[in-house]
Amino acid sequence: MSAGILGMGKFVPERVVTNIDLEKVMDTSDEWIRTRTGIEERRIADDNTNTSDIAFAAAEQAIKNAGLTAKDIDLILVATVTPDHPFPSVACMLQDKLGARHIPAMDISAACSGFIYGMVTAKQFIDNRTFQHVLVVGVEKLSKITDWDDRGTAVLFGDAAAAAVMGQVSDGKGILSFELGADGSGGKYLYQDDRFIKMNGREVFKFAVRQMGESAVNVVEKAGLKKEDIDYLIPHQANIRIMEASRERLEIPEDKMIKTIQKYGNTSASSIPLALIDAVEEGQIKDGDLLVMVGFGGGLTWGALTLKW
Ligand code: ACO
């Protein structure tokens, strides 16, 4: 028995903002955004919808899809850098909204690596039998910390939530290996000031290309697998060129990399689980497939794991 995913859920806001829409409000072009990032459109939540609201929608669905009720959840972990408030945490707000028991609940701040950090944390409690069911949510309302006057960042981000209920799974499924890391000296390249996201795009790009490839290869080796055993790569959806670099390091064909960046942009902590859900729903990822998930983010942080679906 190993720790794996029992059910998943997602929520993306209805409002679609295309590159053409952005052309009208800032000095950018659809062509620039597509060729430099791979993004075509993103979802933006309305002013009355906050992070905990979209987290709730995804979490409810994940619990239902796991065949459970909120009362069955033993721990809530929410990966986000856009909480409703510094405190209470989104996890505590979610516990209340879901009507869960008075179980532990906390947020994880690891930016775009947050969901991998959450899954690995959940695994520890599941493996040592402390908890049976852990709800892990990746959620961001990045639009509220986006500087719409900064074309270098505004075109990149979107809002979304994706959730997984984790617990014991059998038949060799679940998490097979993982790697987590952080380099605080790179914090200056990607951070939030009093209000907005600030980014040195080139430095983040260089770090991401190196780290994503390295971590993806490391977790494959740690699991005792070979690159050719991997059915799908699910990289953090930050920039198609960064994603491609990690795919090339893993030496897997183009159609084996899950790609949703064109429709959602970079949704930070929700990007990897959102891509996983879409690929499962579309019948691309099937029972027993071997997956590599790998992400990087502000901190700087990184995380990767192999998972048998
Ligand atoms: N539209 C048009 N032109 C633009 C835009 C835009 N939206 N943004 C920047 N430019 C211009 C720049 O001003 C610059 O013009 P100049 O040459 O006249 O000075 C030119 O395009 C090139 O800019 P660069 O920054 O060098 O472009 P680059 O190829 O590096 O692409 C990008 C920029 C897409 C941001 C890239 O660096 C990147 O993807 N970096 C990683 C970003 C990332 O993944 N961040 C993760 C954040 S996730 C998290 O943890 C929250």
TrEMBL record:
Catalytic activity: malonyl-[ACP] + acetyl-CoA + H(+) = 3-oxobutanoyl-[ACP] + CO2 + CoA
InterPro entries named in the record: ACP_syn_III_C, ACP_syn_III_N, FabH, Thiolase-like
Active site: residue positions: 112, 236, 266
Enzyme class of the recorded protein, top EC level: transferase
Keywords assigned: Acyltransferase, Cytoplasm, Fatty acid biosynthesis, Fatty acid metabolism, Lipid biosynthesis, Lipid metabolism, Multifunctional enzyme, Transferase
Enzyme Commission no: 2.3.1.180
Cellular localisation: Cytoplasm
Pathway named in the protein's UniProt entry: Lipid metabolism; fatty acid biosynthesis
Pfam families cross-referenced by the UniProt entry: ACP_syn_III, ACP_syn_III_C
Major subcellular location class: cytoplasm
Sequence ranges assigned to domain Beta-ketoacyl-[acyl-carrier-protein] synthase III N-terminal in this UniProt record: 106-184
Statement: the UniProt record of this protein carries the keyword Lipid metabolism: yes
Positions of the Beta-ketoacyl-[acyl-carrier-protein] synthase III C-terminal domain: 221-309
Region annotation (ACP-binding) ranges: 237-241
Family: Belongs to the thiolase-like superfamily. FabH family.
NCBIfam families, per the entry: fabH, PRK09352.1
Job of this protein: Catalyzes the condensation reaction of fatty acid synthesis by the addition to an acyl acceptor of two carbons from malonyl-ACP. Catalyzes the first condensation reaction which initiates fatty acid synthesis and may therefore play a role in governing the total rate of fatty acid production. Possesses both acetoacetyl-ACP synthase and acetyl transacylase activities. Its substrate specificity determines the biosynthesis of branched-chain and/or straight-chain of fatty acids.
Notes concerning its domains: The last Arg residue of the ACP-binding site is essential for the weak association between ACP/AcpP and FabH.
Subunit composition and interactions: Homodimer.
Annotated protein name in UniProt: Beta-ketoacyl-[acyl-carrier-protein] synthase III
Source organism (scientific name): Sporolactobacillus mangiferae
